[in-house]
Design a protein that fits this description.
By secondary structure, the chain is of the alpha/beta class. The chain has two domains: 216 residues, Rossmann fold (3-Layer(aba) Sandwich), CATH 3.40.50; 39 residues, no CATH class. It is built from ten helices and seven strands. The relative contact order is 0.14. Bound molecules: thiamine diphosphate and magnesium ion. Magnesium ion (MG) binds next to loops. InterPro entries: DH_E1, PDH_E1_Alpha_Subunit, THDP-binding.
Length: 322
């Protein structure tokens, strides 16, 4: 933990609705040209948009080899080349941004949608309703995905939301509720939603999932629910166990599944070991991506000193480490 910069959004096994972000064919499934924007729980999304376990772990450890070169941290992973717009620490802020990205797709007459994800806690925010209004008014190709894991920060959905039927809370925007722990259900509902969004405009998907852990390091996750509830969820709904069961039923040999699991654990362990050895970003990168043209201004730092930030083109060392 001591190695990780910023707030750790735990890499929950079930926090990303199974099956959503990466499908290549046919065209009605999500493609890499379809945009994705999400909450601060962005680690798995990064993996589905060109990221590796190594660059994800590097980012968590604040290393220069990270997805955002070690200066973004847990909640700020992006990949512009793969149309992944983050990753954002501000709850709900991805919702209007997602509507904006969908606007860009429509404006450029691209056959693509923007998948815009938010949590059940964020679903009560005012900015969501402004974004839904414009998305509906302009028939933007946006799939709004409410990742309903039933809990917010130190609280439960029933304490925070008058209605927890999040798929109905788009008023004039239609919604579907699906089991977010069922990879095939998510695939199917996403396929439908993409076609709908392209033909008619925005749609809401509420994907029912579950958060095994507390919200973050300061939330033990046990003050607003029982341990029994968590155990029952793990035993009956875990998305990975369900896929395993499906594979076994389809005749995949158990030893093949075991080998895959072993290989994946090794890949993660190796990536962690490598990431820990990687260099930290140099201090000169501090101002990168903060100002479009930082050389043209002078800044006063917290110590009252005046500094002139260096322009991005001076960061030759970036290429050396990248
Ligand atoms: C605008 C804003 N308000 C408050 C916070 C603090 N905060 C971080 S996460 C969170 C709860 C979000 O719950 P939910 O949307 O359900 O997401 P989950 O953690 O369940 O994935 C809060 C209140 C924040 N980051 N941004
Ligand atoms: Mg939640």
């Amino acid at each position: 933990m001591g190695n990780i910069w910023g707030c750790l959004a735990p890499w929950h096994r079930s926090s990303l609705p199974a099956g959503l972000p990466h499908c290549n064919t046919p065209r009605s499934l999500l493609q890499i040209n379809d945009s994705l924007i999400t909450t601060y729980r962005d680690h798995c999304h990064n993996l589905t948009r060109g990221g590796s376990v190594f660059d994800t772990m590097s980012e968590l450890f604040g290393r220069a080899t990270g997805t955002t070169r070690g200066i973004g941290g847990s909640m700020h992973m992006y990949n512009k080349a793969e149309n992944f717009y983050g990753g954002n620490g501000i709850v709900g802020s991805g919702i209007p941004n997602g509507a904006g990205i969908a606007f860009a797709h429509k404006y450029r007459m691209e056959p693509n949608v923007c998948v815009t994800m938010y949590g059940d806690g964020a679903a009560n925010q005012g900015q969501k309703y402004e974004a839904l209004n414009l998305a509906a008014l302009w028939e933007l190709p946006c799939i709004f995905v409410c990742e309903n894991n039933h809990y917010g920060m130190g609280t439960a959905e029933w304490r925070a939301a008058k209605s927890s039927q999040f798929f109905t809370r788009g008023d004039y925007i239609p919604g579907i509720k699906a089991d977010g722990m069922d990879v095939l259900a998510v695939k199917q509902v996403t396929q439908f939603a993409k076609q709908y969004a392209l033909d008619k405009g925005p749609i809401i998907l509420e994907l029912d999932t579950y958060r095994y852990h507390g919200h973050s390091m300061s939330d033990p996750g046990s003050t607003y629910r029982t341990r029994d509830e968590i155990n029952v969820m793990r035993q009956s709904r875990d998305p990975i166990d369900r896929v395993k069961k499906l594979l076994l039923e389809a005749g995949v040999p158990p030893e093949d599944i075991k080998k895959t699991e072993k290989d994946m654990k090794k890949e993660v362990d190796d990536a962690i070991a490598e990431a820990k050895k990687a260099p930290e970003p140099p201090l000169t990168w501090m101002w990168r991506n903060v100002y479009a043209n930082p050389a043209s201004c002078t800044l006063r730092d917290v110590g009252g000193r005046y500094v002139t930030p260096v322009h991005d083109s001076h960061y030759k060392d970036l290429q050396q480490i990248a």
